[in-house]
């Protein structure tokens, strides 16, 4: 059966049509981005066809994107010639991209099972400056959600391995690297937005009382 990357390669065009909307899909993400000073550098991890990269870049920030779907990246590059997009798996070492102030992961960790979350967080920590933040959008739940995993496209079955995650699960996986800061924009759809901050940032805030 075909897997996650095959599914997103096959459906990249449909995702692009759905996600390049004039209105922001996740207003909380833009509120998050506004906290950063001009010139800050963002990584859009699991950027897909690059719609959120584009929105953040349009706010005046530097953005790089990373995804493992070649077809999604083709669209991302075509539509955003000013943004650098890398093809890689988020579980690999992608520290070659350099350091960033913030990582956003919109509906990307839904494809990472619980026991691989610590690795995913550690890869993000490796590219983040000491005082950085992370915005993640996940589907609430635990374990694999079969009805969101199995799809038939053009007569072929795909298992895009879709996992729900609880905040507790994320906090445990991020422990020692990132601390939970805030939940944002929970609109009752089952999708949750969470902000994590590097443990270093949290400690320096405690010291200065800010
Ligand atoms: C639901 S889409 C979200 C795309 C984009 N963030 C958005 O909001 O439009 C999930 C994306 O995660 C990517 N992805 C899934 N697992 C990945 C992995 N292990 N490494 C890199 N990219 C991955 C897929 O290729 C796909 O583009």
Care to describe what's here?
- With 210 residues, the chain is an alpha/beta fold.
- 33% of the residues lie in helices and 29% in strands.
- It has helices spanning 4-19, 27-34, 51-57, 70-79, 117-127, 167-174, 199-208; strands spanning 41-45, 62-67, 84-87, 100-106, 128-139, 143-144, 150-153, 156-159, 163-164, 178-184, 191-198.
- The protein has a 7-stranded mixed sheet. Strands 6-9 form a two-stranded antiparallel sheet. The protein has a two-stranded antiparallel sheet with strand order 7-8.
- Strand 1 (41-45), helix 3 (51-57) and strand 2 form a beta-alpha-beta unit.
- It starts with a helix and ends with a helix.
- The protein binds S-adenosylmethionine (SAM).
- S-adenosylmethionine binds next to helix 1 and helix 3.
Topology:
Blueprint: H1 4-19, H2 27-34, E1 41-45, H3 51-57, E2 62-67, H4 70-79, E3 84-87, E4 100-106, H5 117-127, E5 128-139, E6 143-144, E7 150-153, E8 156-159, E9 163-164, H6 167-174, E10 178-184, E11 191-198, H7 199-208
Parallel strand pairs: 1-2, 1-4, 2-3, 4-5
Antiparallel strand pairs: 5-11, 6-9, 7-8, 10-11
Helix pairs in contact: 1-4, 5-6
This protein binds S-adenosylmethionine.
S-adenosylmethionine binds at residues 4, 8, 19, 46-48, 51-52, 67-69, 72, 89-91, 106-108, 111.
